[in-house]
Amino acid sequence: MALDFSTPGAIFLLFIICFTSNFILKKARPKYALSPPELVTAYIMMIVASAISTMGFSSQILPILTAPFYFANQENRWDEIITPYIKHWLAPRDQRAINWFYEGMPSGASIPLSPWLLPLAMWLIFILILYFVMICMAVIVRRQWVLRERLVYPLTQLPLEMIFDEGGSFFRNKTMWIGFAIPFLVGTAIALHNYFPYIPGIRLDSHLMMFRNKLALIFRLSFPMLGFFYLVNLDIAFSLWFFNILFFLIRGTMAVLGISWRENLGIYGTPNVIFAHLGMGAMITLVIYGLWVGREHIKGVFLKAFGRSGADDSDEIISYRVAVWGTILGIMAMGIWLWFSGMPGRTIPLFLFGAFVLFLGLTRVVVESGLAEAVASTISPGFVVSSMGSKVFGQKGLVSLGLTYIWCSDIRTFVMASCAHGLKAIDMIKGGKRGFFWIIALSIAISILGSLGTTLSLAYHKGGLSLNTWFFQQGPIQPYIWVSEKIMNPTGPNIGGWILRGVGAAIMAALMYLRHVFLWWPFHPLGFCVGGIWIMDQIWFTCFLAWLLKAIIMRYGGFRLYRSARPFFLGLILGQFTCNGVWLIIDFLTGHVGNQIFWI
Q1: Contact assessment for residue 521 and residue 234, using Cβ atoms and an 8 Å cutoff
Q2: 128 in helix, strand or coil?
Q3: Spatial distance between the Cα atoms of 178 and 572, rounded to a whole number of angstroms
Q4: Model confidence pLDDT, tens digit, residues 80-138
Q5: DSSP assignment of 330-374
Q6: DSSP class of residue 164?
């Protein structure tokens, strides 16, 4: 419910507020009902919290900091090649506290907090600077994306419909409730099967083995993604599934012919190293081209920041001076922190460049394409080691790089994207907006404290090994498996990787040029940029269905029919998330576990 950019938990809770308490209050006691600005405030706080509480930070940091001390053995030799190079202020060292974290503490014992205080304090300094830089960057590009380029922001359309539902027209729309009912009933059937196995289950995915059984073509129906993809431009939806199928065919052909590229970039991103490099080159071009297109606005922002007449920042949550200097000084502070953690100084600029290219590029992808489950084709640790070689880092630097998996590895959600969507929602409100910065800051603080406290409590009372296997067992060891391989097999710069990234950048630039010159050009550059990621392998079929349905609707019914059908697709999103929220409450009351209704 807080795993991806779609923020199901935030939408479910907003639905409860808007449809029940607020809807009733409007009828019975209108003066007590929450106003749209107040609802926007609640929504922004929830989506920012969603970016922190699980995948974004809190479910990553505690297991990753302790994993090398707990899972070290004679075979992996982490106690020789990993743990001696972790600075004492970066991770707890009390072995009893670490063992209890995974196995549960004895009856009558109390949670050992003291070993955690220094590491968490030092990490929070870095994380808070990172989040501040993300907010600053989101402010710098907001006007360009929202007012000049008018990106569609599909993920904000359902929340804004509920918030600004004057007269209750959205909740009275029968078409919306039909769309709502389909995933709600299907999800309920899945939940009942999980409770009572004799009730027939419903599967929403299948696959077809191809290329001599080497690759599986996945057919998955995702109701929320069907709704999100319906809201985007036809050429974007078409390009996403088209390039994914194209990359699948290329991968399959390579598998049959035995063609492979041997390089370990880590497990995150695309399953094919070639497409990881191509995608990184494409992402760099996407970000640089976006800044070039908005150069007039960016110039005005910097002029304003340096005290000259420039862009108007009266409707931003912070001034452009704060945003620009916050970005510059914040990135410098992050670099200093990374240097103290053991990362060589000459590697830090390229590493941070890669990290923020991916953060900013993924944010752009999500707000323009509606790809609520987006990930990058690669991650910055893999990118910088491939570019500069592992030898330049040394053991200490590689271990420091492995610890960055806490905040820049499985980036399926992060504060910059949530903030960008929040700024789009704020744009609907008239009047001053400076107070919203402190609202976002407050939500960050509450989410960090609440989620870290909850995770520590669950781990020590239940035992991390009995909790989510990815967050507590499989995921935390991945950084150190990768670091160990790089330590044992040192490498120099990968020239082939540089060439492939250059090719990816050139193809992306060509697609952008062709789209700019020829109005009929059907291929949107975003499809090439993220078409090869693993999650598109899962949802390409849903994207194809959304594109096909929208194409038929637009062809035979025009914009009027599109508008009439839109509530149905919004209902698909709301119905799925509401079903999951309702069954989470039921599971809590009954004590049932493992009742997963939907994944994507």
Answers
A1: no
A2: helix
A3: 8
A4: 999 999 999 999 999 999 999 999 999 989 999 999 999 999 999 999 999 999 999 99
A5: HHHHHHHHHHHHT--GGGHHHHHHHHHHHHHHHHHHHHHH--TT-
A6: T
